[in-house]
Amino acid sequence: MLAPILLLCLSASTLVQASQSYLINHTFIGNDFFAWDWYTSDDPTHGRVDYVDRPTAKAMNLSVASETTFLMRADHLNLVHPADRGRKSVRISSPSTYTDSVLVLDLWHMPTGCATWPAWWTVSKKGPWPNGGEIDIIEGVNNNSNNLASLHTTTNCNMTQTRAQNGQTVSTQCDASFNYNQGCGVSFSQPNSYGPGFNSDGGGWYAMHRGTCGISVWFWSRDNSTVPIEVSQALPTVNPDPSLWGSPDAFFPATTCDYMSHFDPHNIVFDLTFCGDWAGSPSAYGASGCPSTCEDYVNNNPTMFNEAYWEIKSLGVYTPDGR
Ligand SMILES: *[C@@H]1O[C@H](CO)[C@@H](O)[C@H](O)[C@H]1NC(C)=O
Ligand SMILES: *[C@@H]1O[C@H](CO)[C@@H](O)[C@H](O)[C@H]1NC(C)=O
Ligand SMILES: *[C@@H]1O[C@H](CO)[C@@H](O)[C@H](O)[C@H]1NC(C)=O
Ligand SMILES: *[C@@H]1O[C@H](CO)[C@@H](O)[C@H](O)[C@H]1NC(C)=O
Ligand SMILES: *[C@@H]1O[C@H](CO)[C@@H](O)[C@H](O)[C@H]1NC(C)=O
Asked: In order of start, what are the domains of the chain with their CATH numbers?
């Protein structure tokens, strides 16, 4: 039997959580991602996308593994006809679910460009959404330059404006029934945390810690010397303590949201959609400076989706010692 672990969850503005190490549970590199599930239903966020199955993704070279990388991309060769479901793309989800965990993603490249809406996130299978919760770790649209991390939950989960984090709070209601599913979001302060700036720096590392005291997200660009060695070297043990890793870019403390009742086991998801509820909205597409209408752009400009790809070096999933 395990001795109970005493966790101190102090207030949102001070120390984040008690120190705890996590051991590597699984590392996904290259071909390992072909064990994930390819999602083929309509995009729930109403994107102009046609999510293809694994054999189609392989045959069309939309999902490619090498010894050292895994690449997922949009079709950048073909026009989309008005009657088609959308531009061909990929959405995959992990075979296992995780609760208390640390995810470390070493990423070379993320999808960018007008009309794109990529995300790396975790979500419950429970349904109907948002039962069991959603954690968005990397997300943005069009040619944004700053990452947005957010939570989407059922009722009674909110965040204070000021927390122990480097990013800026943009919304405080995690409850998806507020403001058209906006969720509680934090915009990252580093302009190379998303999009073209991220890619031109050779990418970097994202880490998400989900624990009893809350959820934290960190980002380090490829050339940032403050990245912890255990993250950059993918060591078998990590300790996501802010006194060792620095304060997180986004912090969602459990003080104003009961995590046990709002978050259950989650699958890990990568996707890439186009237009839809966020990227295609007048306030996003219209304000981006991108040409034409979002759907017209997706349909008629395949070569503009050249940069619309994920290229992953590795994904490490860590779970608590001895569990
Ligand atoms: C498939 O994509 C990979 C990665 O971009 C590339 O190296 C390869 O040449 C492509 N193969 C074909 C047949 O297009
Ligand atoms: C690894 O994670 C899986 C899925 O959550 C879990 O069932 C398993 O017990 C974990 N293994 C270890 C050694 O922690
Ligand atoms: C935040 O959530 C708590 C319940 O956890 C609730 O009592 C409170 O009214 C909420 N505050 C706002 C501003 O919604
Ligand atoms: C390196 O990362 C730290 C922690 O996120 C950040 O405060 C700092 O601005 C970054 N430095 C550079 C040069 O990007
Ligand atoms: C986004 O792309 C459009 C079209 O290329 C351009 O006009 C606009 O300036 C870009 N916006 C940013 C923030 O880079």
From this structure: 27-319 (2.60.120.200)
* Cis bond before residue 128 (omega within 30° of 0): yes
In degrees and rounded to multiples of 5, residue 221 shows phi and psi of -75, 165
Q: Is the CB of 319 under 6 A from ligand 2?
A: yes
DSSP state of 9: -
Residue 293 CA to ligand 2 centre (angstroms): 46
How many angstroms is it from 145 CA to the middle of ligand 5?
A: 11
Q: What is the pLDDT of residues 214-268, one digit of tens each?
A: 999 999 999 999 999 999 999 999 999 999 999 999 999 999 999 989 999 999 9
Give which of 217, 191, 187, 189 is closest to 205, Cα–Cα.
217
Asked if 139 is an active-site residue, the reply is: yes
* pTM exceeds 0.85, yes or no: yes
Residue nearest to atom 10 of ligand 2 (CA): 25
